[in-house]
Amino acid sequence: NLIFSTQFSGIEDINLDSFDPLRFDHYKVTKSSGLLIVNGVVKNVTIHGFSKGKIEKIGGFDKNMMEIKYKAANIKFKGKYNVKASILGIPLNGQGLFTLVFSKLILNLNN
Question: Given a cut of 70, is residue 92 above it in pLDDT?
Fold first, then answer.
């Protein structure tokens, strides 16, 4: 939790970027399931708040499996989107700027 509880600024010597804000340039979203079809891209995304969260559980390494439980009060995503979607055959298309705020976020990661 030391890494997340401080404003971790990265480690230049090993080319490790900052955890807060996290940034990514491009992420493609594709989903086709029955009556839902989504094709989209989000770009220039920044994610603020990860350093203020807490890792509550890490385990499973002895079973060739990893498990992590992470909690954060507020995580904010900002970026650009372009999406073409269809729900029940109704088109939902758009592009522009977005902001997503997650309050009381709980992530359970298992592989």
Answer: yes
